[in-house]
Each structure stands twice: as structure tokens, then as C-alpha cells.
Amino acid sequence: MERTMRGQTDIPVLSDLLNIFVAQRGSEGYAFNVALWFLPCLFVTQIVFYVADRYIKNPYILAVAIAALSVGGYVYNLFVPFRLPWCVDSMAMVLPFYAAGYFLARRRCKGAIPVLSGIKTAVVAVALMAVLLVCAYANGRVDMDTGIYGNYFLFYCAAFAGILFFYLLCNFYSPRWIRCLGTGSLVIMCIHEPPKRVVIQLTSLAAGMPSDVLCATIFFVLLDAAAILFLCMVFYFVINRFSPLELAGQKRGGTDLVF
Fold first, then answer.
1. Which residue ranges traverse the bilayer (predicted)?
2. Is 143 helix (H, G, I), strand (E, B) or coil?
3. Where are the domains of the chain?
4. What is the DSSP secondary structure assignment for residue 114, as one 8-state letter?
5. Residues with Cβ < 8 Å from 64, sequence gap 6 or more?
6. Could you give the CA distance from residue 53 to residue 58 in angstroms, rounded to a whole number?
7. 60 within 8 A of 17, measured Cβ to Cβ
8. Are 199 and 224 in contact (CB under 8 A)?
9. What is the DSSP secondary structure assignment for residue 182, as one 8-state letter?
10. If you write DSSP's letter for every residue of 20-71 in order, what string do you get?
11. What is the DSSP string of 136-187?
12. Is the dihedral of CA 158, 83, 94, 11 positive or negative?
């Protein structure tokens, strides 16, 4: 349905079917939902980090090993056009983010992360946003799905600056609906693409303008994003509330999902 709306009906069904098992990244391999490339990448990243953390006891050696894998993944994406199964080539670039999140969460549980005051939080947040904007602008377009990272150092500087910015922001202001979005972020990532196309088409019809023009208008971009988030969170809420499945570790019927 989504590709029909885009006017792309010549996608080979067999290659998409086989890619469910091979999991090579790239939009042509996930015609039904391009964002799903991240799932096998995440699973492989978890496995690799678990093995590395289990058998490399020295944290400095572990950090060097992760950095070496990251550099290797960057060089591979830069010079080798062949995409590895299960998004292994992307995994190498994702691994530093996963490791940083793991160690940050572990230190937070131990109370080892200092709590900044409101003024200090604002100053650090502004500095991080400045780093993010400068590095992102200098680096240009980034697309992990297709292996486009730009400059290695600018990529990680911009990424970690953005991560830390939102980490500080959420520590300073974290209402229930923000926490709900956080716990449902993986679900949103997995299911947002098909409803996105429907919402864009409906908005385009209602506004009487082409979808490409609509997607370049900030008002309609924000409006569509809010509608898509709402639809995804309704799905997330219903699944957690009424089905035997559990998403993002939430207990069925848990109060964390109540707005």
C-alpha cells in the first residue's frame, strides 16, 4: 500500500521476502517499511556488545575494541559497496552508541552521575546544541541505512551532542507523556512508516496541495508528525493494555502507559 501511494509498484516481491532472513540494509530491501533495517542491526549490536563485555573485563581494552570496530565499519562503508547480512556493517557504527548508553545507565543506577542545577543544565544544553548544529552542518547529509556518514569525527560529535542534549532535557523535564514516548520509541520506529504515508496523503488531499510541497512546509510537517505519533502511541497503548504481548518491557495494563 505504501509503495503504491508513492507510485513505486515495481518492487520485486521475492527479494523483499528473502531480505526478511538476510536483513541487508537499504530501502530496496525493506520496501514494506524502510525503517525496519534498524531491528536486525540492534539485535546484532546487542549480541556483539554482550559477548565483548562478557569476555573483555578491562574497560579500557573494551573501549579500544569498540572504537576499532567502529573505525573498521566506517572504512568498510566508505570503500566496499557490498552490504553485509544482518546489517553487520551498520552494527559497527552503532556499537559506540549502545555501549555509551549501557555504561551511562549503569553509572546512573549507582548514582555516579552528578545532578546539575537548572542554570548549569541550561548552559550545558546550549553548548551541546551549538556543537550539534555546527557539526551537523559541517558534516552534511547522514543516512545510516545507506552507509552515508560523512566525516567520522563530525558524525559522532553531532550524534553524541544530540544524545546528551536530550538526556539533559529529559532529566530536567520528564512528564509522563515524554516517558511514554521513550518506552514506545522502538515500536514507533517499527510501525510509523505505513501510517506516515496514509497521513501524508490524507493531509495532502485535505490541504489541496501535492505531498512533496506539503512535506516542505514546516506547519504540515509538524502536524503530520503529531498525528503519526498519536496513531503509533494508540497502537502501543492498545497492545500493552489488551494483548498478551509485552512491548518495551512494559507490564500488561501498566500505569506507565496512561496519559
1. 30-52, 59-76, 82-105, 117-140, 152-170, 213-239
2. strand
3. 1-113, 114-173, 182-257
4. P
5. none
6. 9
7. no
8. yes
9. H
10. HHH---SGGG-TT-GGGGHHHHHHHHHHHHHHHHHH---HHHHHHHHHHHHH
11. HHHH---BGGGTB--SHHHHHHHHHHHHHHHHHHHHH---HHHHHHHHTHHH
12. positive
Q: How far apart are CA 134 and CA 152, in angstroms?
A: 15
Dist. CA 122–CA 172, nearest whole Å: 9
CB-count burial class (<10 Å; 0-12, 13-18, 19+) for 1:
exposed
Decide: 57 and 120 in contact? Cβ < 8 Å: no
* Amino acid at the residue 169: L
Q: How far is CA 188 from CA 191, 196, 222, 247, in A?
A: 5, 11, 16, 11
Q: Which amino acid is at 42?
A: L
C-alpha cell at 162: 544530540
State the amino acid at position 248 in one-letter form.
A
Give the span between the Cα atoms of 67 and 252, in whole angstroms: 39
Spell out the per-residue pLDDT of the chain, length 259, in tens: 555 555 555 566 666 666 666 666 655 556 656 677 778 888 889 999 999 999 988 888 999 999 999 999 999 888 887 778 788 888 889 999 999 888 887 766 555 556 666 777 788 889 999 999 999 999 988 888 778 898 999 999 999 999 888 888 877 777 777 777 777 777 787 778 778 888 888 888 888 888 777 777 888 888 888 898 888 888 888 877 776 655 545 444 443 433 3
Q: Where are the beta strands (DSSP E) in the chain?
A: none
The residue behind cell 531480505 is 19
Can you tell me the distance from the alpha carbon of 81 to that of 94, in angstroms, rounded to the nearest whole number?
Answer: 19
